[in-house]
Each structure stands twice: as C-alpha cells, then as structure tokens.
Amino acid sequence: MTEQNHALPDADSFDPSASSLAGRVDQAVMDELLSIRSSIDNIDATLVFLLAERFKATQKVGVLKATHKLPAGTRDASPPRSRGSAGSPKKRTSILPSRRSS
User: Where are the chain's structural domains?
Assistant: First the structure.
C-alpha cells in the first residue's frame, strides 16, 4: 500500500490567481473574477476575526458569571436585550441587494 501525501501547499507556493479558467475566458472577465474572489477572501478573513473576537467576549462573560456565581445560561437570569419596543420585533435589514422583478 502506498502512502499519499495530502499536505496542503505552504503560503509561498499558493497562487490566488490560479484558475482552471485561465486562458479560456476573456482577460477582462478573468480580472473581474479574481477581484471578486479577492473580496470574498477579505470577507472570510473579517468573519474569522469577528468570530474570534466574539469567542473572547463569551469567554469573559463565562469568567464573570463564574466569579459572581451567576447561572450559566438561563434566560430568566439575564435582563432582556434591547431589540426595539416590547411586542414589536425590530425589523431586520438585509445586507444583500434586493431582488426586483422586471
């Protein structure tokens, strides 16, 4: 039985502009595609950062609750969060573009 090396490429050998479409589509289209992919990579990095920050904050909540012997997760123990007036849920706005029918 032969062993397969499934190691990921290191950062120096990674080429973000590599694509199976290179040479098969117009260069302007390829440039736009790479630009959009770069935006997606930036969004992904931001999400990872925000999730890490959220994790740190929840850890602090856990330590604070443990220090003051507060219940870990009962809704009755925590004051209601501000989400608009009582009885009327806050309207959520989407960051996605609206879909308009023609």
Answer: 27-70
